[in-house]
Every structure is written in structure tokens, then in C-alpha cells.
Amino acid sequence: MRRVVAVDARVRAGLWALSLLLVLAGPTQVIGAGASDDDDNGTGAKFSPQAAATFNGRCTACHTYGNGIKVGPDLKGVTERRKRAWLLKFIHGSSGVIQSGDPTATALFAQFKQQRMPDWVDLSDQQINDILDYIAIGGPDIRPADERNAATATAAETENGRRLFYGERQTKYGAQACVTCHSVRGAGLRGGSLGPDLTGVYLRYQDPALTLFLRHSCFSWQTQLPQEHYLTAKESFALKAFLRTSAMPAGQNSNAAGNLSLQKEVRSDGK
Question: Of the four, 43, 78, 193, 261, which is 20 to 30 A from 91 by CA?
Fold first, then answer.
């Protein structure tokens, strides 16, 4: 009995050491990420992530997109209502445009009770154009690919998630494979033991919470990997789909289960 316990302890120690070695060494002999992995929305529309971040961080403080007047005018359709050159000048320095007597600027100033838009002098012409492009394609209405409910995943997307989980496919930005520290049912000796088993994580936390979790790096000490470059939205969705499949009871057909439970899941998370 003591010999069995000793062997088991050595096996566990060996697996722990192997997991740590994989963390330090990084993935090897895996398929590289494709260029299409960076297309992070499901519509095929291309826009600058920085433009989206700036819009959400600055513009939404005073404007809505399609929901009417807030502090300033609704920005939906603004690129059709105003010429691009005028918008560039106004965003850079609304105060100067108003003082120049521009009829559109002075009318807006009067309409909105003389509340002037800040002069965004720190933004370049390119940055402003990117924001305007984002507005023009309806960017604020586009949901990132990782916000799709995992029950809608195709077999190919789920398989891609499995390959990412086990490190058979490298992530675009070089994030460590989940199996480095975690395991799921059926992983066998490939599963890591540094972190918890993830077999039931999808059922415990459900789609929205898991989506938010996968947007942040698990390794706070992995300083060479910027937070904004952890997983692409498509990678995150694929992993979420695989974790959902892993949570299904053994022998249960995940596609059939997905069809039966999709309405329930959509009602529970609103998507």
C-alpha cells in the first residue's frame, strides 16, 4: 500500500513539474494562428479596435447611437448628415468652428443650450477618421464574436476550441494553452493540475460570465503578454463552445443537446 501511495505521489509530482515546464517553455509544434482570427466580429465588417474603444470611452459620455439625444445629438447617421471634412474640423476644435460663425456649428450650439463639445486636439486625423468609419459601418451595433451563445457553435468551431484548449493550435497572441494548468473530462495525462478541473465550468457560470472571464489573461505574472492581446474574440468563443461541450454528460450528443437547450440558455442570458 505504501509503495502504491509513493508511486502515486511521484506521478502527481511529475505531472505538476511537466505542467510548470510547459508554462515556462511555451507551446511547441502547434499550428499557427491564421490571419482571419483577428476578424473579431461575426459580420465581416472591419474596424479599428482602438476606434471602438475611443468611441465607447469618450463619445458615449454625451452621445447615443440610435437612442436619441443625450447631452449631445444622436450619432447614428452623422456621417451621412455631415461632410467628413466638417466633422474632422469640428471634432478637433468645436470652439473655433463655432467662433468662426459656421451656421451648422452655431445652430448646434444654440440647440444644445450652449453646451460645447470638448476640443479633442489629442486625436490625430487618422484616429478621428477611424472613429467616423466605425460609426459609418454601424460599429456600435456590432456585437463581438465572443458574445455569441456557445449553443450556436458549429462542430468546426467547437473542434477549434478543443485544439486551442489542448495547445494543438497556437493562439494568435501566444497565450498559453488551457491544458497547461487545467483539465477536462477525458483529458487523461494531458490535463494540467495547477488549476481547477474545467469540466463543469460552463454550467456553473453560464455564457455571459464565461465570456467576460475569457477576455482576461489567467496569468497575471505573464507580463510579456499585454491584456488587450490575450485571445481574439473568435478564439474565446471557440474555447467557450468546447467548455460547453465538455460540460455535457458523458455520451450525450452535444449538437442535439444544444438544439434542445438553446432557447433556455438564450432566455437565461438574454442573447
Answer: 43
